[in-house]
What we know:
The complex is a heterodimer. Chain A is mostly helical. Chain A has 12 helices and 4 strands. Chain B is an all-alpha fold. A two-stranded parallel sheet of chain B has the order 1-2.
Amino acid sequence: MGSRASTLLREEEIEEIKKETGFSHSQITRLYSRFTSLDKGENGTLSREDFQRIPELAINPLGDRIINAFFPEGLDREDQVNFRGFMRTLAHFRPIEDNEKNKDPTASEPLNSRTNKLLFAFRLYDLDRDDKISRDELLQVLRMMVGVNISDEQLGSIADRTIQEADQNGDNSISFNEFIKVLEKVDVEQKMSIRFLH
Amino acid sequence: MGHLLFTGWNCRECQTFVEKFEGALGKGKGRKLYAYKVMMAKKMIKFNRDFENFKTACIPWERKIKEVESHFGSSVASYFLFLRWMFGLNMVLFGFMFGLVVLPEVLMGLPYGSIPRKVVPRAEQANAMDYSVLLDFGGYCQYSILFYGYYNDARTIGVFKFRLPLSYLLVGVGIFGYSLMVVIRMMARNSNEGGDGGDEGQFTFSFKMFTSWDYLIGNPETADNKFASVTTSFKESIVDEQENQKDENIHLRRFLRVLANFLILCCLGGSGFLIYYVVKQSQDNAKKDQDELTWFQKNEVDVVMSLLGLVCPPLFETIAELEEYHPRVALKWQLGRIFALFLGNLYTFLFALFDEVNEKLEEEKSIKNATMWSLKEYYANYSSYHNTTDVPPLDIAPADVVRGPCWETTVGVEFMKLTVNDIEVTYITILIGDFLRAVIVRFLNYCWCWDLEAGFPSYGEFDISGNVLGLIFNQGMIWMGAFFSPGLVGLNILRLISSMYFQCWAVMATNVPHERVFKASKSNNFYMGLLLLVLFLSLLPVIYIIMTMPPSFDCGPFSGREKMYDVILETLEELPTFIGNIVGYATNPGLILSAVLLMVLAIYYLNVTSKNYENANLELRKKMQMARDEEKNRRNNKETTNQAMQYLEDLLPNRSLIPPPVITEESALSKSSKVAKHPGAAANGKGVNLQKDVSLASPNPRAAVTRPPGPRGPPGHARGPPPGPGRGRGRGAPPPRR
Lengths: 198, 738
């Protein structure tokens, strides 16, 4: 498996991924071997079923949302994600290092910046990708999180209250900027970071 | 590199720069050393991380408590956290007692049977091994290291010249000192954290919605727990919200509260009088002939105390419903009242104990006189018979020597018996009151007329106040008794460990969560305050005894001395004289008085400064809140003004055309009036409907919250519930789908 993995991943590809996501060489190689071990169909891409086979995701009530985040928008349910897409999503969780702040200011924001992390989280809730979290989307999330242990009326009230707290321009939904405002006191850089071992 | 390019160094500087950082570049002279340093740094980081993980894994019972917390809420879990903290405290006390008192006596002191105080007297030896006698802590138990009387009073023992009596006294006092320090430090730490609450009132529900799930969970059990805890946390917030929105009819409520307090004071007064009366009666009965009394008359005090303990707390709770406090506040009141009730309990116990001690002291005087008299007789006879003055010591077997009644051991035995009694009562109450009840409700439900689970007995709720007070009073007993019975602390450790396992099991298996789950107060200071009070109450009798009562003449480490603290004076005499002088000066009343005065002034000053800081804090917070509200209003209002108004506003710098800042709720109300139109619901001021009577959707509101998330379909299942017309769309027109 080891030799096969390295022959399928060319140096130029590794360089491109490195530039785009900021991962180091060894991290990319290690993640590639994880990618191939998940890819049961051995066709170089992952489908949703491959993800659902991961036991930790299967027991997570919000697991489907996470799987969703790997698949780019606009495609239907039969889509696949290749290694580039896989790395692009995982790059959101790279810890922010201090020396990155001194890099070229004209380049676009790295994938693991605070705003991009929050955007990732935002997209978990905004299912229809209209850049707003509506009351119904909140209700869906709530129902997933607490099931039938709280009555629907109370769930509705909680959703209303959440919108009331966060909404500032009065459109009864939470836009991305309002979402950022809500979480401005949360240490997103630290909470949404995973230590990928180098 | 960029830096180098832009600063235009000359060749020489470049060279020095490269040489300096050669190692880092992987070439040249410093390579090996630098690589070694980097490797050590990495190893150190890894080691630190592993050590932190190890330390966290060592915290005992963490998973158990988290499980309880996720199912029953933070208030029930706070009892278990308190229990665990007590366990830690008792371990340290046990370490002191065992290491500095028990171990030296066992290793270096005289063995059993060598001197009178270490032997069971001849008269009792026949049944010293009987089970019933041992259970009563008599026989071999009484003459063992468990109790005060076993310890010898030799000034130094063993090869290391360990001063046992001094150590005993210092450990006895040191236990109080350490406990005091720890409790006050905990209180100080708690009050720090309590102040950081800050603006979390701003986005409570949003936070819960967006940040409560932990995506790193991979274990099914943990996922279930997290699921339950998210539910509980929402319920807690709902309760808090309800409390904030209640209608205030101040006068009626005040009257009801005064009435409730008056009733409860009457109850407490009545029970106090009843206790006093019963104790007086039992004292009179003790003087009569024991065979004439009935069983009831012999055990009057115990019966009355148990009855009061069973009847009064539920009575207080019923009366407290008049007051309509927030559940957290109501819990505090309940704790305070039961505390007052238990103080009566304590008073009778101490009263009885002191009576017994005085009796023993009288007995001891007579025995002491008798012993001295017989010794004198022996000497006189011997010298007159053999015509010498060199009299060999009396040669009697240790078991036959006439012994005094050793009141300290009696006191120790009383405390031991009390603790054992307490343990038995607690466990039996849990077994019968919770376990048996749950079994009956569960299995008898199949053949009973009404629904036992929803109706009358149903499952029990965990009684936080009773358990916390039990724990606190138990600790008070331990503090009082540790001086007279070194084995008591060990017994307490066993009790705490078994209690933790037993109660965790009982809570998960037989209790249901409270109907109104409420969040525990952030600081545990209320429990700590009660504990501190009990610590002081238990310190007083022990200090009094050490200072004033004479120790027994023939048992214990202080035997033969006038007062127990004479040990310290003796030790001081052995030290060099200048230390004695220093101590003499330090105990000068003038010096002590001025020190006390200085401390009082310091306390006053610190109190005033801390109040000032609190006020400043509050002001700042208010200012921040006002600034935030203004910004929100400004943003809301900007949309409704037209171009002309905007132009005018920009012209006038003092912005006098903007309406005065309205309270946030009202402006939000106008925006959210569309939102609150649930059919048939009462829309109150804040536009969110939280009726008090709306309970869980499930038909049985008292079912335990253990329903795990519904089964997810096989792989390939559609993602989540389809976004069709859900029940949330109770409004007029569904929002437009884009």
